[in-house]
Amino acid sequence: MDEVYRYIDEHADSFIEDLVRLVRQPSVSAKGEGMEDCAKLVEEMMLKVGLNARILRGERGNPVVYGEVKSEKTTKTLLFYNHYDVQPPEPLEEWKYDPFSGKVADGKVYGRGAVDNKGNLVSRLKAIQAYMETAGSVPVNIKFVVEGEEEIGSPNLEPIIKKHRRLFSADAALWEFGGTDRHGRPHLYLGLKGVLSVELRAKCALKDVHSANAPLIPNAAWRLVWALSTLKDKNEKILIEGFYDGVQPPSDEEIGCLKNIPFEEKELKEELGLKQFLRGLSGFEALKALLFQPTCTINGLLSGYTGKGSKTVLPREAMAKLDFRLVPNQKPNEILRKLKRHLEVQGFSDIEIVQYGSTEPVKTPVSDPFVGLVAKTAEKVYGNKAVIYPLSAGSGPMHLFRNLLGFPVVSAGCGHPESNTHAPNENLRIESFIKGVKFIAALIDDFAKW
Ligand SMILES: [Zn+2]
């Protein structure tokens, strides 16, 4: 690997230039900004590295960029999942540099997408380049699936995967995100929570009326508040019948992993100005809840007059946006069905439910040999034992790969706690980026020998 590492060090500047170029191409999926151009740029970068690349299109949605390079030595295949879309950069006034400038300063590349996910994507492409340029070819088959809708919940990925099942087959996959903590320990993630997003709408009279009519006219805001209050009690227990069906407590192995996760509890409380977490949870119990507890969250509420001063009005409609974060064995469709049933039973069949995105919870077992392989490679490259998260509190379309295509998936990447993912001043430390390229090169080498 020394020769590959040397190549990486010698070409670091050109790798950074390519990353800057990709960051400079806006690709905000929430606004449909620059998506086609960004997909073409990713395809061009893949071709430049020496991959066979093509753009896959579904009936709707942003294109998926697919890339592959075959090995002559083996049929073993490693797949990389990444995304070229980014979160909206707002609030713009909080950025030190233009979010699409790709400004290089104090050892970092700044910009929306610098880490999530363009930095991770480029680190992988460059690892393949380094390996091919030094060894002449890759030691295993490599596939890239780079989608353009991850930040909006991947609503159109499933049909594309189902249509191109063969193309997406692999023995294992490396997911899009990860990084090191402040002590240089690599963090690996073996799963994701699922999510179900809905909007609840209450509609009563045909129009808003004077609140003097309150003894007679139903109030949509009250209807909605009453309905919402039946969903969860003050101890955070979700009251929908059957909500917790199938939910398993973490296994002994998973508990073992949890105990090794550094949880920055004090920092988080300080950052948020909170004296304590919900239910007074702390330490191991707080971390366990964060990763293994399913939730019901009100994301937003809207009804009636919310302007300056007062207005004696009785609102005709009200709406709330909610998300349910789900853990393995819960299914978004079943939860939706149980939610409908719950509202009916509670006397709220008038409340309309609109479903938005959903993804299934997913995990690869701690005992899967691929987990051991990634952890060992990470330990070798970073010089520190890997921290393993059996599940992550976030969500994504990992289930399409793990459950539908059926191979183990582990997430690892080149982020850092100060990367400001999804926030202003997102940045990638150049040192982490180059280390990330080496990690990927080492991983494909170890995967071939595995
Ligand atoms: Zn993201």
Give the helices and strands, then pairings.
Layout: H1 2-10, H2 12-24, H3 35-49, E1 52-56, E2 64-69, E3 77-83, E4 104-105, E5 108-110, H4 118-135, E6 141-147, H5 157-163, E7 172-175, E8 179-180, E9 186-189, E10 191-192, E11 194-203, E12 209-210, H6 220-229, H7 252-259, H8 265-272, H9 283-292, E13 295-303, E14 313-314, E15 317-326, H10 332-345, E16 352-359, E17 362-363, H11 369-382, E18 387-389, H12 398-405, E19 409-411, E20 427-429, H13 430-449
Parallel strand pairs: 3-6, 3-7, 7-19, 9-18
Antiparallel strand pairs: 1-2, 2-6, 4-5, 5-20, 8-9, 10-17, 11-15, 11-16, 12-14, 13-15
Helix pairs in contact: 1-4, 1-13, 2-4, 4-13, 11-13
The protein binds zinc ion.
Q: Find the count of extended strands (DSSP E, 2+ residues).
A: 20
CATH architecture of the largest domain: 3-Layer(aba) Sandwich
Please indicate the count of domains.
Answer: 2
Q: Which range does the strand content fall in?
A: 15-25%
Radius of gyration: 24 Å
Count of helices? Answer: 13
| Alpha-beta classification | alpha+beta
Summarize the structure.
By secondary structure, this protein is α+β, with helices and mostly antiparallel strands.
Protein described:
The protein has 450 residues and is of the alpha+beta class. It has two domains: 2-192 and 362-449, Zn peptidases (Aminopeptidase, 3-Layer(aba) Sandwich); 194-247 and 294-359, 2-Layer Sandwich (Alpha-Beta Plaits). It contains 13 helices and 20 strands. The strands form six sheets. Strands 1-2-6-3-7-19 form a six-stranded mixed sheet, with helices on both faces. It has a four-stranded antiparallel sheet with strand order 13-15-11-16. The chain has a three-stranded antiparallel sheet with strand order 4-5-20. Strand 4 (104-105) and strand 5 (108-110) form a beta hairpin. The two termini are 16 Å apart. 44% of the residues are buried. The model has no long low-confidence stretch (mean pLDDT 96). The structure holds zinc ion (ZN). Zinc ion is lined by residues 87, 116, 151, 422.
